[in-house]
Design goal:
The radius of gyration is 15 Å and the shape is globular. It has helices at 21-29, 31-37, 127-150, 156-160, and strands at 2-4, 9-18, 47-50, 58-63, 70-80, 84-89, 102-111, 115-123. The protein is α+β, with helices and mostly antiparallel strands and 161 residues long. Strand 3 and strand 4 (58-63) form a beta hairpin. Helix 1 packs across helix 2. Strands 1-2-8-7-6-5-4-3 form an eight-stranded antiparallel beta sheet. It is built from four helices and eight strands, in the order E-E-H-H-E-E-E-E-E-E-H-H.
């Protein structure tokens, strides 16, 4: 779902996963898990968010192809395992300018019967970033859901289409 703020668009995505909050949390902060579901989104290499996951720490969205190219970066703003993670989000060239930062929030909420509600709120986006994440998040989160529920991400051909 897309919403508009006074000046910049936001993006919200909600999915329900048959798993535990702890497993969702691990998937959000563990590089080895991320490289399994952050693949095929743009038909490029696997990616992962790399940080020590402490408030004030830098995080980087890195390519896992041996180059460690940083596609996005920011700061960990809030962290409450296993229920909430908030990060600033910027292109590396714009990281020094806070007015160019978006904000990404992950909310992990246990539901009845062994289900977890995962909500992604991506705020303060420019139009280009909004278009990119609107195409990217559904694939990434479908891949995450499939990985956690079956032990395997979506087939690469499906992820790349």
């Amino acid at each position: 779902m897309t919403t508009m703020t006074a000046t910049k668009p936001s993006y919200v995505y909600v999915t329900y996963i048959v798993t535990t909050p702890e497993k969702v949390w691990q998937a959000l902060v563990d590089v080895d898990m991320m490289r399994q579901y952050w693949v095929g989104v743009a038909t490029g290499p696997a990616r992962a968010n790399v940080s020590d996951w402490k408030v004030g720490s830098r995080w980087e969205h890195q390519r896992m192809d041996g180059t460690a190219t940083v596609d996005m970066a920011g700061t960990v703003l809030e962290i409450e395992p296993p229920r909430r993670l908030v990060m600033s989000w910027a292109r590396p060239a714009e990281e020094a300018d806070p007015s160019k930062h978006g904000k990404l929030t992950f909310e992990v909420e246990p539901q009845p019967s062994g289900v977890v509600r995962l909500t992604i709120l991506h705020e303060d986006l420019d139009e280009k970033m909004h278009a990119g994440i609107s195409n990217g998040w559904p694939m990434i989160l479908s891949n995450l859901k499939t990985l956690l529920e079956t032990g395997h991400p979506l087939p690469r051909a499906a992820a790349a289409s």
